[in-house]
Amino acid sequence: MLDRPFFDRPVLDVSRDLIGAFLAFDGVGGRIVEVEAYDEADPASHSFRGPTPRNAVMFGPPGHAYVYKIYGIHFCLNFVCRPGSAVLIRALEPQAGLPRMHERRGGVVEKQLCSGPGKLAQALGINLDHNGLALDRPPFLVRPADDSHPIATGPRIGITKGMETPWRFVLAGSPFLSKPLSPERKAL
């Protein structure tokens, strides 16, 4: 299991090391195949303008969930690293609790169950009640990747500032991504 010291590192290192890790919430989850990094020096980050009631968890101890709502309907799950930094979990390869995922997501095809941050949170049953929960105890389970695998990077998705910063990390070749990576991007 990944413990709090794992998250108490630079956000780019944590992001890279989360690719291939296993994430479950209350027994439902899968392999992390896509993440994005954000820190307080980044104009696209919620922490860029300092602490607020909404983003306070980002300035708390590492190894906690930062959950927020976007567009008034979708929830997003982030893993807090050092103060003001977090990793947005964008996509999973579903591996555990698929019947519950299908029930929550309306029976969509497997590749679409967790292929985006809002879809992922819905499939896992994550909402604002889970903001601030520790990642090293139930209902969360986060295990390290079993093996090495090719990682590719590219620009983040759906932001208006810092768009070209290559802080999107993906499992190269995964069919479970929220959006394919540009073909010119190279694996690390």
In total, how many beta strands? 8
The main pleated sheet reads as: 8 strands, antiparallel
CATH class placement = Alpha Beta
Q: What shape does the CA trace take?
A: globular
Helix-strand pattern: HHEEEEEHHEEE
SS field, number of helical segments: 4
Cα Rg: 15 Å
CATH arch. level architecture? Roll
Give the terminus-to-terminus CA distance: 25 Å
**Structural class, please?**
alpha+beta
Low-confidence stretches: none
CATH fold description: 3-methyladenine DNA Glycosylase, Chain A
Number of structurally distinct domains: 1
- The portion of residues assigned to helices is 10-25%
Mean pLDDT: 89
**CATH H-level superfamily:** Methylpurine-DNA glycosylase (MPG)
Percentage of residues in DSSP E strands: 25-35%
Descriptors:
globular, 3-methyladenine DNA Glycosylase, Chain A, about 190 residues, alpha+beta
Short précis:
Belongs to the DNA glycosylase MPG family. 15% of the residues lie in helices and 27% in strands.
